[in-house]
Design goal:
CATH architecture of the domain at 74-221: Orthogonal Bundle
Shape: globular
Pfam family, one: TetR_C_30
CATH superfamily of the domain at 74-221: Tetracycline Repressor, domain 2
Strand content: under 5%
CATH topology of the domain at 74-221: Tetracycline Repressor, domain 2
Largest sheet: none
Structural class: mainly alpha
Keywords: DNA-binding
Number of strands: 0
Organism: Pacificispira spongiicola
Oligomer: single chain
Radius of gyration: 20 Å
GO molecular function: DNA-binding transcription factor activity; transcription cis-regulatory region binding
InterPro entries: Homeodomain-like_sf (IPR009057), HTH-type_TetR-like_transc_reg (IPR050109), HTH_TetR (IPR001647), PsrA_TetR_C (IPR041586), Tet_transcr_reg_TetR-rel_C_sf (IPR036271)
Helix content: over 70%
Distance between the termini: 64 Å
């Protein structure tokens, strides 16, 4: 990194234009790992600066506060997940205007599974996401809504169109059940070994997706009465 001290830290002062994007991404990468490990309350911006090997003032320069830094971290990859969900759904609808419930649910889940298994950074985001989904603070609720609601509502609309016998409000309720369950399994909290007496301790990503999709497709189709 240009303008660095002997210990690898960037020298104080405003970065030049060429450094802007790189420095911001380095800070976001390290903040993502820190928040994933320690949660929001357990992470200090000074810790992030140490990990990123930048002056603490640069975090204030780029993000202003810890809240804003956390939001930027979540929006970065959460936005990728939401955008890919919409892309997969539109591709599905282009091939078939009435896709199966299984195909719709698979398209919704796949971006999360792909991100988790894309490497350490993707896995860190999944852990960070678990932290924010467990929070009830207004900040967390607003952020989740901002990042995910547009794609989620598009999926609810599509499911309602292929399940006309199920009221839209019920489809939305079942999607809430679906989201809570898949996040639980995505974060390896399902106690597979305990519940199968050690016979199944791990499922490959594709196998996990297959079972979740089949299970929740049946739930989506279940009669309301």
């Amino acid at each position: 990194m240009s303008g660095a001290t002997q210990d690898g830290r960037r020298k104080p002062g405003r970065p030049n234009v060429a450094e802007e994007t790189d420095l911001r991404d380095v800070i976001l990468d390290q903040a993502e790992l820190a928040f994933a490990e320690s949660g929001f309350s357990g992470t200090r911006t000074r810790d992030v600066a140490e990990r990123a090997k930048v002056n603490h003032g640069l975090i204030r320069y780029y993000f202003g506060s810890k809240d804003a830094l956390f939001e930027a971290v979540f929006r970065r990859r959460g936005g990728v997940v939401s955008s890919r969900r919409l892309t997969l759904l539109e591709s599905l609808l282009a091939e078939n205007t009435a896709p199966s419930v299984e195909d719709i649910l698979h398209a919704y889940l796949k971006p999360q599974w792909d991100m988790k298994h894309s490497g350490p950074a993707g896995a860190a985001f999944i852990r960070l996401q678990a932290h924010i989904h467990a929070e009830t603070a207004e900040r967390a609720l607003k952020l989740r809504s901002e990042v995910y609601d547009a794609s989620l509502k598009r999926y609810i609309q599509t499911l309602s169109s292929v399940l006309p016998e199920i009221p839209t409000q019920v489809v939305a309720l079942r999607m809430a059940f679906f989201i809570g369950s898949y996040l639980f399994m995505l974060n390896d909290l399902g106690r597979l070994g305990d519940l199968t007496d050690g016979e199944t301790t791990h499922l490959e990503p594709d196998a996990m997706l297959h079972h979740l999709v089949r299970f929740f497709a049946a739930g989506m189709r279940a009669p309301v009465a």
